Amino acid sequence: AAGQSANEPSANEQLAAGAAPRWAWPIAAPRVVVRPFAAPETAYSAGHRGIDLAAAVGTVVFAPSDGIIHFSGTVVDRPLLSIEHGGSLLSSFEPVTSDLPAGVAVHRGDPVGTVAAGSGHCASACLHFGVRLHGQYLSPLNYLGGIPLPVLLPTRTLH
User: Fold this and answer.
1) Exposed (0-12), middle (13-18) or buried (19+): which is 49, by Cβ within 10 Å?
2) What is the signed CA dihedral for 126, 64, 100, 54, rounded to 10 degrees?
3) Is the peptide bond before 30 cis (omega within 30 degrees of 0)?
């Protein structure tokens, strides 16, 4: 990814290796998840392919990790911004307006746009934050460190 040293593993290599992700939240604190990720049963099933964060119109959106602007524009009726982070890892944000064109390098923490009005996605203003790896939607919390590691517990008492 842009700005990544040759020795530093990519975000998806870190995730695969179980390392702590190095992504930053796309908005400043306080951060409230108003709707969590809900994986669809199949690629075309209903689900919620990201997380919604409470965010007022005009809230600055920051790049969660180094990358290249993949898309900045309108899809159907919603302004959308997506960033390619290398290794087929893509983050997306809506409704977000941005002056950055496709192909521009961004670094973790750089302002990349602002939350726009009228998306209809949430009951009140919010930022939808999605992540895809090789085209498959994953919870952004995987990259933000918000999902605790699983712990195996015994199923019977030992004597």
Assistant:
1) middle
2) 10
3) yes
For residue 157, give both structure tokens: 């008492």
Q: What is the mean pLDDT of residues 47-72?
A: 94
Q: CA angle at residue 22 from 20 to 27, to 5 degrees?
A: 125
Distance of alpha carbon 144 from alpha carbon 159, whole angstroms: 40
| Rounded Cα gap, residues 112 and 83, in angstroms | 10
- Which two tokens mark 21? 């992700």
| pLDDT for 59 beyond 50 | yes
Q: Is the dihedral of CA 50, 52, 57, 63 positive or negative?
A: negative
Contact 126, 93 (CB under 8 A): no
pLDDT digit string, tens, across residues 112-124: 999 998 666 777 7
Q: Would you state the pLDDT for residue 154?
A: 75
> What is the Cβ-side half-sphere exposure of residue 126, based on CA atoms within 13 angstroms?
18
Strand partners, 79: 74
Percent of the chain clearing pLDDT 90 (strictly above)? 52
Which residue type occupies 121? Answer: H
